[in-house]
Design goal:
Layout: H1 3-38, H2 42-52, E1 65-66, E2 69-70, H3 75-90, E3 112-114, E4 119-121, E5 128-129, H4 132-141, H5 153-172, H6 183-213, H7 216-227
Antiparallel strand pairs: 1-2, 3-4, 4-5
Length: 228
């Protein structure tokens, strides 16, 4: 693995740890509110419910309950937060793009993108998978670790739109009498959306960390640290 690949992996690790801590804290607050209410701590429980109410309707009939008290958010929002937390720990690297000049060779064992043909080149293989972006989606779904050699805004939009389909269907189809939304469907549709959204957040925070660490100020600090 070359220096640039190692630095990118380190940035991605920091991003996943940061987002994992953030969404993990949110999940603890969601289940902490009813537990505190059940333990006769209404003040702290009310504060948590109030904080979470800014992003959720908190309808008791659409929320899971612990010891007779509803979770801090509804079933769909609970699924979203759980998906955000889970994917921040196991996010696919297909969206963590390397910014490499031209189309140079990446380390062995890593697929790259032929930017001229928009095809995936398998490591150790002379053949090309000529199904373009759709191949990348199928490979990611199959659990294969794919790293892009450049950023694909179009693929990110497709990825996010895919996550919106279950949650929109579960919310809108009942209005026409075509589907009966259940606690499980609300939880799972939110889980899918949160998981796919988290992969984009991991990529975005990874790029943010890389830009911060590569900023002129950070380079000056590193140079002074090396001299001392």
């Amino acid at each position: 693995m070359d220096e640039e690949s190692a630095a990118h992996d380190l940035d991605a690790t920091f991003a996943r740890l940061f987002l994992g801590a953030l969404w993990g804290t949110m999940c603890l607050l969601i289940i902490g509110a009813p537990l505190l209410a059940a333990q006769s701590n209404p003040l702290l429980s009310s504060i948590i419910y109030l904080l979470l109410s800014s992003a959720c309707h908190q309808m008791p009939e659409r929320s899971f309950a612990i010891l007779g008290h509803p979770w801090g958010v509804c079933q769909r929002c609970a699924g979203i937060y759980l998906g955000l937390f889970a994917a921040s720990l196991v996010s696919p690297r297909v969206f963590c793009a390397y910014r490499t000049p031209g189309n140079r060779r990446l380390p062995d064992g890593v697929m790259r993108v032929d930017s001229a043909r928009m095809t995936l080149v398998a490591p150790g293989s002379r053949g090309l998978l000529r199904s373009g972006l759709s191949s990348g989606i199928r490979l990611c779904a199959a659990g294969i670790n794919v790293r892009m050699a450049h950023s694909s805004a179009q693929m990110r939009r497709i990825w996010l739109a895919t996550g919106c389909i279950p949650i929109l269907a579960d919310a809108l189809l009942p209005l026409g009498g075509l589907w009966a939304s259940t606690p499980l469907s609300r939880l799972l549709s939110g889980l899918v959306f949160g998981f796919l959204l988290s992969t984009l957040l991991v990529a975005g925070v990874t790029e943010l960390f890389r830009d911060i660490l590569n900023s002129p100020q950070a380079r000056v600090l590193n140079s002074h640290g090396g001299e001392s």
